[in-house]
Amino acid sequence: MIAEAKTRFALPIRALAAEMRLGVATLSRWRRWLARGQAPVGRRGPQKVKPLNLSALKEQIQGLGHGGKRSRGSGSLHRIYGAAISRRELDAMVRAVRSDFSRQRRAEIYHVSWLRPNLAWAMDDCEKTEYGAHGTLHLHNLSDLHSRYRLPPLAADHLPCGEEVAGHLQDLFERFEPPLFCKRDNGGNLNHLAVNQVLEEALVIPINSPPYRAAYNGGIENSQGEFKGYLDRLSWKAGSLDKMALLSETAAHDLNHQPRRSLGGKTACRAYFGGQRIRYPRRRRAAVYAWVHDLAAEVSTRAGKPVITPVAWRVAARQWLVQNGLIRIQKTGEVSPNFYQKSDHN
Q1: By the 8 A CB rule, do 340 and 315 touch?
Q2: What pLDDT is recorded for position 57?
Q3: Whole-structure pTM value
């Protein structure tokens, strides 16, 4: 290109260098390298002088602790091979292997679909980051796992304590009727004594997520993202946290009336109220609760545990749901929440 411009427009090298915002020495050096058949620009950074044992490097990359976004041990690996390969090239190799591991994990996960409205709810807390001087909005959300119906959230300028969560649950149970199951993570306010009492009185079976497995409760995690996206788009309408709290209730209403492909084009509101909602009388709810409780107690006893563990609750709940045809389990290519390590829930 430089030679063509020089011949066509009869411009000196200095003028071409100024037009391309390059130094004359740099442009001349590039021309000399091109004349010798060499690349004019090499890789950035010092040249690597140590020979690279590629097979050993690939084997060690396979042995790293690959997560969803990071691979534990990659920094130590670069310190070992830093004289033979650049960090940029090593990171690219690690990303490729991590992507393969992620695809393999997704292929081994089972997707669990809840087949009836009001069969199971999920609850969790999230924060909407600061709005200038207005502070942070805390949302306590609940969602029906079959219909994706967003129940009215509890919004405040602080994280709701256990008593507030329990009171909100009690209000929703009276308004919508309690589900048979309630999924939650291991937050202290969600596992408060007052919350457990409300669940037990309503004969709602708690299903706690395994520690450090946010994907287990993926249905509510997706709901949190929808709430945050809605508030991001319309937060300009609210000038204070009180108005943001009101806007979160509007968000739940609007999200419940959007057609969803996962529901065959129906809205969450129609799927929840127009479907075959679980409305067991108390005697039947008590029988379900007792069946799951007894099996969970047996599982815990066989494992040598003095009290019923969260794992036992999950195993017993899954067994009852499968026997009664209320969930569908199938392999999926997308990560969703799971009952145990290789199965997931939506």
Answers
A1: yes
A2: 86
A3: 0.67
